[in-house]
Amino acid sequence: MLAHRLAMESDWIRADMVEATEFPHLANKYQVFGVPRTIINETIQIEGAVPEPMLVNELLKVLDGQA
Amino acid sequence: MPLLSTKIQADVRKALEEMAGPVKLVMFTQAAQALECEMCAETRALVEEIAALAPAGKLNVEVKDFVADTAAVEAYQVDKIPAIALVGAKDYGIRFYGIPAGYEFSSLMDDIVTVSKGESVLAPATKAAVAKLNQPVHIQVYTTPT
Predict the structure, then answer these.
(1) Is residue A6 included in any domain, yes or no?
(2) For chain A, which end, N or C, has fewer CB atoms within 10 Å of the first or last residue's CB respectively?
(3) Secondary structure (H, E, C), B25-68
(4) Partner residue opposite A35 with nearest CB, options B101, B111, B143
(5) Where do the domains of chain B lie?
(6) pLDDT tens column, B13-53
């Protein structure tokens, strides 16, 4: 999984794959209706499969203080 | 009775033949009060079945108790169970929460092989961008078994 490979590349990154049906309170919290749903630092939320360049763009928002 | 069908066992065995270095699956479960964790026993059984299909000594399982093994819970930053930490040459911060079924299962297989090789296989532009990071990033990907 891309997020896990990003975690391999950087000591700053940790990545979880979460099976939504077992954690309904979290699925609710993050409004998970369609999967996959990617959440970065509790703030950035992306619906659907995310290509590598797009996920990288979102990660860089962390540097900008947007997440 | 095994959780994986004979066909899937063969597929898993074949996939794991690609492993290079050893990988550890650190599984967090709850032994006592198993009622609190619906999928813990099944996840543990699945993880042990998968490990048995890897080349000898390449895939090892450690089982930790979420309630009793507080040091491990803190070290691996696990906050819910069942949890699997996938550890290769080091702990890269790779976690699976919930039973790895469906899409998660193939991700687990891919990740085991990738981690065993110790190379992220990301595009050069991605690596360059990631190198700029200077603060913690926590990515969560929610999926379902279908």
Answers:
(1) yes
(2) C
(3) EEEEECCCCHHHCCCHHHHHHHHHHHHHCCCCCCEEEEEEECCC
(4) B143
(5) 6-130
(6) 999 999 999 999 999 998 765 566 878 989 999 999 999 99
